[in-house]
Amino acid sequence: MNLPTFSDIEDAYLRIEAQTHITPVLTSRAIDKITGAEIFFKCENFQKVGAFKFRGACNAVFALNAEELASGVATHSSGNHAAALALAAQLRQTQAHIVMPQNAPEIKKKAVVSYGGLITFCEPTLQAREETLQKILEQTGAQMIHPYDQKEVIAGQGTCALELIQQQDDLDAIVTPVGGGGLLAGTSITAKYINPEMEVIGAEPQGADDAAQSFQKKQRMPSLHPNTIADGLLTALGKLNYELIIKNVDDIITTPDSTTIEAMRLIWERMKIIVEPSSAVSLAVILDNKEAFKGKKVGVVLSGGNVDLQHLPF
């Protein structure tokens, strides 16, 4: 299995540097007081397309040559990766074909269209997404860019932690959300290369806990009927990501949606920034396990800020 390494992440950083934002790291004394930890929030909600996903999509698209790009790029995604790929394709002046489930959030559909992506809707199952994408790949000859389980995508996501550690170099731990696992896997490569002592922790909703189960049982478990408010974390853990997570990650902790809503509200109220539920899962895990994080310097990746403002959970 061709797993990405730290040198792939360094290459990705140089490749996408001109296209991506260096996102800020924010702190909140109020949240530090509540949790008993010193938290450094890496604000990928301020990244282009409003999510870290732009890093991976951008790296994958910019790694392709003109010939490979001629027939466009394609993926399946319910949200942020879809918009990220559409924008990355637009920057390389090629077409993005996006398969989206019909029930994808309206804000995410609008974003894809605004970046020039061509959407094909399908039933909201992984099987329907994969089958529809297969048809489009056959019809168009487009290059497949996987939402999370692809070497270039994982390397791109790993640049987020690289930037965070450059901005705040004395962290004891980094906590990131985990859905498909690209962000957690990429983060784990970076963190363990720079400081093997740094803890890397995945945060996952209890209603979509296939990564936590896979981590505990040491075999990749299927995601069956995931049900969580964190719509960005409904995907099943990828194969490459599973291998990297088993190798590098210290723990995956789950949290109920009720705590995620509390954490999301806390970030909105205390930090005055908009994050989506998937982002808030990381802080939720800290709120649920204060003793484990007490007195530590913790990097928390706020993965995105694309919220359907018509359907807020509070």
From TrEMBL:
Its cofactor is Mn(2+); pyridoxal 5'-phosphate; Mg(2+); Ca(2+). InterPro entries: Ser/Thr_deHydtase_PyrdxlP-BS, TrpB-like_PALP, TrpB-like_PALP_sf. Residues 22-304 form the Tryptophan synthase beta chain-like PALP domain. GO terms for biological process: D-serine biosynthetic process. CDD domains: Thr-dehyd. It comes from the Bacteria. Keywords: Lyase, Magnesium, Pyridoxal phosphate. GO terms for molecular function: ATP binding; L-serine ammonia-lyase activity; magnesium ion binding; pyridoxal phosphate binding; serine racemase activity; threonine racemase activity. Belongs to the serine/threonine dehydratase family. This is Phenylserine dehydratase.
